[in-house]
Amino acid sequence: MCGIIGYIGKANAVDIILSGLKKLEYRGYDSAGIAVIVDRKVHIRRSVGKLCNLYLNFRERPISANIGIGHTRWATHGKPSEENAHPHTDYTKSIVIVHNGIIENYAKLRDELQNNGHEFKSETDTEVVAHLIKEHYKNNLLYAVQKTLIKIEGSYAFGIICKEEPDKIICARQDAPLIIGVGKDENFIASDVAALLPHTRDMIFLENGDIAEVTVDKIIVKDVKNNMRSVKIKSVECDAVQSEKSGYKHFMLKEIFEQPSTIENTLNGRIYPNEGRVFIEEVKIKEEYIKKDISNICVVACGTAYYAGLVSKILFEEFAKIPTEVDIASEFRYREPILNEKTLVIVISQSGETADTLAALRLAKNKGCQTLAICNVIESSISRESVHVIYTCCGPEIGVASTKTFTGQLTALYILALDWAFKRGKLTKESLKIYLKELEGIPLKIRLFLEDVKPIKIVAKMLAHKKIFLYLGRYLNYPIALEGALKLKEISYIHAEGYAAGEMKHGPIALIDASVPVVVVAVAGRVYKKIISNIEEARARGGVIIAVASDSNEEIKNKSDYVIYVPKTSEFISPIMTIIPLQLLAYYISVFLGCDVDQPRNLAKSVTVE
Ligand code: F6R
To answer: Which of ligand 1's atoms lies nearest the C-alpha of 303?
Structure first.
C-alpha cells in the first residue's frame, strides 16, 4: 500500500509531486506529505486525511524546489497522524525518506539505534531506515543506502533525498513496485505508471534488489554490492485520459458504465465465434499440456479476484473437466498445498501487486507448477513473474472497489475454460461457437441494461438505512452473491453477507426478520426453481426480498418486494450480467448514505502488504 513519488529537474517539484500523489491516492489516503530541498535546506509538509489538506497547505504557503519526494499513506505501523505521515527524517533532518512496504525487523533495529542515542519521533517502521542511513552516511548517499539495505528485512520501495547531496534521489525496490520515469533534463520515480504518464512514456521498471541513483540527466542502477544492474527503458502505451472521471460523479460509476467496452476489449482478437476458435496470443502453454499433462488447476487470489476464481472452478470442471480448487492467497501460502509440475496455478489480480497473491505465485513456481496470471496492470510484479499472463484490458481502475476488472477477470476465465474444454475434446466445435457467440453478445446486453438504472436507484433509496443485508445465489451465481455483499460492505459500511442459498437453513436463516433485505440472484436456469424455494423460505421469515431476475419473468413479482430485471442470458454467462445491478445497488446506497465511494475508509486499492 502507500504511494511514493519523486522528481528532480527544472520544473517545480511540488506541483509535479502533488499531481502525482493525486494519481497514487488510491493506494492509501489517510495522510500525505512532501519533502523538498531548497538551498540545502529540507522542507517537509505533512497532513492527515485526504490529499486536499496537503494541497491547501502548499496553497497557503507556496514553495518552489527542483527536487522532492512525496508519499500518500495507508497506515501499517502507527495510526494516521502527522507524526506518522511520511516523509520521515533522521534526527539531524539530513536524510529524508518515503517508503511503501513493511520493515519486518524494525523493532530490533530501533532498539539498537535508541541505545546509540537516536531519538524517534514517530511510531513507524520507516523512520528506522532514515536513522540507519544516517549512521552509515559519509558523504555518499548511495553507499549509505546500500549499507542500510543489507541490514533491513521486509518489503520496500524507497525514495530518499539528502540535504548534503541535493542533486540526486536514491531509490530502491524489494517486493514493492517502483518505476523510474525517464524525462529530458528531468527524471521521476513513482509507485505506478499512472503517476508518470502525464510527463513521460519512457520508463524503467526496477527489479527486486535494484538501487538507483537518479539525477537530472543520469540514471545508474546498482545492487547492494555496488555491481551495475542492466536496465531497459520501455515505452509504455496507456491513455492518461482513462484515469479521469470524464463527467461521472465517481470513478466507480464511470468504471461500472465502462464494462461493455472493457469486456469487449478483453474479448477482442481472442475469440472468433464464427470459426469456433479462441486465440490467446500471450498464452503459450502447450496444447499437449492442456490435453494430457495437466492434472489439476489451483486458482489463487484475494477479495473480488477470489470470487472470480470461484466462478472459474465451475467452468473448468464442468466444461474442461479439469479438477479445480480455489484458494484465498493468504491461506494458500501458509498451508502446504499439494502441488507439482502437473498443477497449473492461476493467480488472479487486478493490480498485480497484491502481496499474498504474489507470494502464492512464487510458491507455485518453486514447486515447479505451470503458472498463469490474469492481471490488469501491465508490467506489474505478478504479470512479470508469472510464466504466462492474460491481461484484462480494462484500463486503469481507480475506484477502490473493483468493478470492471471483476467482469474482465470473468471474461478471461470464460475464454480459457472454453478454449481448454474444446482442446480437451470435451466441447464440440458447434457448442464452442454457441458459447463464444453468447460471450460476444454480453457487452450489448449490459449496454442495454445500463440505459435505465432507475429501478436500482429506487431500491437503494428505500433500503439505504438498513443495518444488515443478505445476498443469496446458487451455482454460478453463488460467487456473485459473495461479490455483491463485498461491494456493499466496502463502500457503504453496511454489514452484508453472501451465502449459497441452499445453506441458509443451516444457520444464517436465523438472521432474517422484517428488517433484513435479502438480495437474491434468481435468473433463469437449472437452479431457478431451487432459488425460488429459497426466496419463499426467506419471505416466510419476513425478509424484504430484492430479486435480480431475467427479463419478463412475471412469476417473481409475486414473490419479491422489488425486482431488478436484467436482459436474458444463458445461465452459463449470467454472472457477467448479474453482478452489474449488484455493483450499482452498492454504489447508490453508498451515495445515499453520503459515503466516500471511491476511497472508502480503511481500504486501499493495492494491498502490497500481507
Ligand atoms: C474489492 C477489491 C479487493 C481486491 C483484492 C485483490 O472491491 O477490490 O477485494 O479484489 O484486494 O486485489 P488485486 O485484484 O489487485 O489482487
So the answer is: 9
**Does residue 295 register a pLDDT over 60?**
yes
185-217 in b/e burial notation, b at 16+ Cβ within 10 A?
A: ebbbbbbbbbbbbebbbbbbbbbebbbbbbebe
Do 169 and 272 belong to one domain?
A: no
Query: What's the pLDDT tens digit per position in 133-183?
Result: 999 999 999 999 999 999 999 989 999 999 999 999 999 999 888 999 999
**Pair 227, 266 in one domain:** no
Q: Are residues 474 and 417 in the same domain?
A: no
Residues with Cβ within 8 Å of residue 290, at least 6 apart in sequence: 420, 423, 424
189 and 43 share a domain?
A: yes
Ligand 1 atom 8, closest CA: 402
Ligand 1 centroid, distance to 352 Cα (angstroms)? 10
**Mean predicted confidence (pLDDT) in 348-377:** 95
| pLDDT at position 239 over 70 | no
**Residues in the ligand 1 pocket, defined by CB under 6 Å:** 302-305, 349-351, 354, 357, 401-402, 486, 490, 606-607
Closest residue by Cα to atom 16, ligand 1, is 349
Active-site residue, 302 included: no
Cα–Cα–Cα angle for 468, 576, 352, rounded to 5 degrees: 85
Work out which ligand 1 atom sits closest to the CA atom of 605: 8
Q: Is the pTM of this model over 0.70?
A: yes
CA distance 109 to 150: 12
In a shared domain, residues 220 and 326? no
458 and 530 in a single domain? The answer is yes
Position 192 scores a pLDDT of 87
The Cα–Cα gap between 257 and 248 comes to 10
Model confidence pLDDT, tens digit, residues 466-487: 999 999 999 999 999 999 999 9
Q: Ligand 1, residues 302, 386, 390, 480: which to mutate, most atoms within 8 A of Cβ?
A: 302
Q: Which of 238, 271, 298 is the last residue of a domain?
A: 238
606 CA distance to ligand 1 centroid (A)? Answer: 7
The domain of 440 spans 251-450
Amino acid residing at 566: V
Residues 283 and 365 reside in one and the same domain: yes
Residue 11 has pLDDT above 60, yes or no: yes
Are residues 134 and 265 both part of a single domain?
Answer: no
Residue with CA at minimum distance from ligand 1 atom 9: 303
